[in-house]
Amino acid sequence: MTDIHDPTHRDLSIDQQLALKTAATRLHGEFDGVFGTETIERFLHSSYDQFAAHSTIPRFLPLLAERFARQRLHALARVEGHHTDGKPTVLFLCVHNAGRSQMAMGFFQHLADDRAVAWSGGSEPGYEINPAAIAAMAERDIDISGEFPKPWTDEIVRAADVVITMGCGDACPVFPSKRYLDWTLDDPAGKSVEDVRPVRDEIERRVRGLLVELGVPVA
């Protein structure tokens, strides 16, 4: 296993090394008794690499890696039966994970509160959340500005009860016996807030319908 504490590893700065070490300590505390050191650090390391390949803001890489590793570890815990809260889990997928899937996850989390779990991902993750999507969601008092585009991984797809695809076509992952729904929605990339509003409203309508299907009370 590659050691993230090795000062020569990928020429990380001292601050990045310390940030990753701190992240690993937090993850160890959260998943103590569920996963061992090797699994936790492997997920943190691979999550870092996934963002390092295209990040334009290196100082945020350890934080993004920690957040994504935490999500992946929670997903793996569900897959392996370590975490069985019975909450429906939905994965929203689009191309860049910067607009449609982020708005869908925002509505889902807002309406379901803690009664269900939502994740999102992209086949070609972008660099930032679409500003028009952020503004359109803010009009509904839903803040998605703290989210970030991310890829999907096998454990995240496997942990989902329902996978919602939005324009990623053949690039979307296919797992046997998994429930898939394809939502045909305009891509908000490059659109103004005014043009994004109809997409936002259609996403909200579909998310509300999905929650009804899943038997999740709407907040």
Automatic annotation (TrEMBL):
Species: Actinophytocola oryzae
Limits of the Phosphotyrosine protein phosphatase I domain:
88-213
This chain's protein is named Protein-tyrosine-phosphatase
Keyword annotations from UniProtKB, A to Z:
Arsenical resistance
Which NCBIfam families does the record match to this protein? MSMEG_6209_Nter (NF046112)
Q: Which InterPro entries match?
A: Phosphatase-like_N, Ptyr_pPase, Ptyr_pPase_sf
Q: Which superkingdom does the taxonomy of this entry point to?
A: Bacteria
Instruction: Determine if rRNA processing is one of this entry's keywords.
Output: no
Which GO biological process annotations does it have?
response to arsenic-containing substance
Give one Pfam family, short name only: Phosphatase-like_N
